[in-house]
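Backbone-to-sequence.
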């Protein structure tokens, strides 16, 4: 009996103690501290459980309650979340010796490789030797050279979906692009059959990135097969073979620096994740929002039909001659606007930076004090939906980025809070390739098919896009897939 009473007393003491800590932190958060801190109950863990269970929802709630900048403890990391256009911009343009993204790269590596002891060996090599290759090969001037067969590959894969009564929208959009883009990166030995493993692994990515405990043997096995396939492709890649494209460059850097291919393959998979993940989500939402607005869908399709006719003559010529340079054209200005509008709405976070020294981050007329060892989490979503910059900023507006005089596919975002492709030293290396991929897929999809969404409820007369998943990270993920009916518009 005494033992039981003692145990109960101990438990009561712990509960009272934790309650005191929580109340103390809540009261402290109501003080004049800037930035305000999100209160938490458990030391070190902080708000990690709430964040991991739904990152996008957690950040949205905290922003509404604590304002445009706030502190949050996430598993031993003191995070400062910044949301204004100026604070996000200044963080992205900060000197890398002050704010580094090394921790973010490590998190991505951790998501694709359980043995993180390999990470230090390859990070510097990839950062200083491989990334410059990507900068050069994917630049606006050079990207045409790696996209020669892209449209033809997408066309051949899309043909497989023709005439089906019930097709997964996600699969019909992402499988053709996955095959066409991954072939550019992995070369002549790449197998399209790896899409199933990619999809299995990719579905668990939001959980992996926040390190939420889970047990998914199919995902782990899929990851293992992907890494083995990447290793095989890199080992076989020949820098002198045009069919190997970027894979030959990857292989050359890896060999010259004596890095085992098994150690390099997780880093290449991380690059592929960065390449595909945001693209796949943006394709899904672009088509979902177009299908939800028949006028917008018809307007984009009419522009595509006219653009192909006037710029290329016919669809066959488009497939043979499409290039990033030729699609950066006023003939596809409305499609370009639809893509920019989609990326504006889907962008949630722009990554995490670690402070290497104390400094002041400018934000409006004031500054945010950042101490060495603290992290800055970039959350531009509120700025990108701010009504002052974007009227009805929470809505999809097809014509929002159409210019009176077309000046280039990314120029309509100049002077506005737009961070879908990053900024400064951290601008997306594949932004020109990504714009080209979305344009080619959309042009071919809407040229080949009349697409009709199938309601989840057979008795329903209407259709609406799915809701964003609260577990979304990086870009919005949907809560569920959409099924569509594809009726051929042309003879395939």
């Amino acid at each position: 009996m005494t033992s039981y009473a003692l145990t109960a007393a101990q438990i009561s003491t712990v509960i009272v103690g934790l309650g005191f800590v929580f109340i103390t932190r809540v009261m402290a958060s109501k003080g004049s501290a800037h930035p305000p801190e999100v209160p938490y109950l458990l030391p070190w863990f902080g708000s990690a459980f709430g964040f991991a269970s739904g990152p996008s929802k957690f950040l949205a709630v905290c922003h509404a309650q604590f304002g445009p900048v706030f502190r949050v403890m996430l598993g031993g990391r003191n995070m400062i979340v910044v949301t204004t256009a100026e604070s996000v911009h200044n963080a992205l343009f900060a000197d890398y010796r002050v704010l580094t993204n090394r921790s973010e790269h490590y998190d991505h590596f951790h998501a694709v490789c359980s043995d993180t002891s390999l990470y230090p060996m390859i990070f510097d090599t990839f950062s200083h030797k491989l990334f410059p290759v990507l900068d050069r090969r994917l630049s606006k001037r050079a990207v045409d050279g790696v996209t020669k067969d892209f449209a033809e590959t997408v066309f051949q894969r899309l043909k497989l979906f023709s005439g089906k009564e019930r097709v997964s929208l996600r699969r019909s959009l992402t499988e053709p692009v996955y095959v066409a883009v991954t072939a550019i990166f992995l070369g002549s030995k790449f197998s399209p059959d790896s899409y199933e493993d990619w999809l299995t692994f990719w579905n668990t990515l939001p959980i992996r990135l926040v390190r939420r405990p889970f047990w998914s043997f199919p995902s782990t096995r899929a990851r293992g097969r992907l890494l083995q396939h990447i290793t095989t492709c890199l080992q076989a890649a020949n820098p002198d073979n045009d069919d190997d494209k970027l894979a030959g460059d990857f292989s050359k850097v890896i060999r010259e620096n004596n890095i085992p291919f098994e150690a390099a393959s997780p880093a290449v998979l991380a690059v592929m994740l960065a390449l595909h993940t945001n693209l796949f989500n943006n394709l899904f939402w672009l088509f979902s929002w177009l299908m939800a607005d028949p006028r917008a869908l018809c307007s984009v399709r009419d522009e595509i039909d006219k653009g192909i006719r006037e710029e290329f003559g016919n669809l066959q010529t488009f497939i043979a001659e499409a290039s990033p340079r030729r699609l950066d054209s006023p003939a596809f200005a409305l499609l370009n606007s639809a893509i920019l509008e989609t990326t504006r709405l889907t962008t949630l976070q722009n990554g995490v930076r670690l402070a290497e020294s104390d400094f002041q981050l400018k934000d409006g007329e004031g500054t945010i004090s950042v101490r060495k060892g603290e992290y800055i989490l970039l959350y531009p979503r509120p700025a990108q939906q701010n009504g002052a910059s974007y009227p009805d900023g929470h809505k999809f507006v097809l014509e929002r980025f159409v210019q009176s005089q077309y000046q280039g596919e990314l120029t309509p975002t100049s002077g506005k809070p737009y961070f879908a492709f990053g900024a400064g030293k951290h601008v997306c290396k594949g932004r020109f390739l990504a714009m080209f991929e979305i344009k080619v897929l959309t042009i071919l999809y809407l040229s080949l098919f009349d697409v009709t969404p199938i309601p989840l409820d057979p008795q329903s007369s209407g259709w609406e896009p799915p809701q964003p998943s609260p577990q979304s990270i990086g870009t919005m993920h949907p809560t569920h897939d959409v099924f569509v009916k594809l009726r051929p518009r042309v003879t395939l």
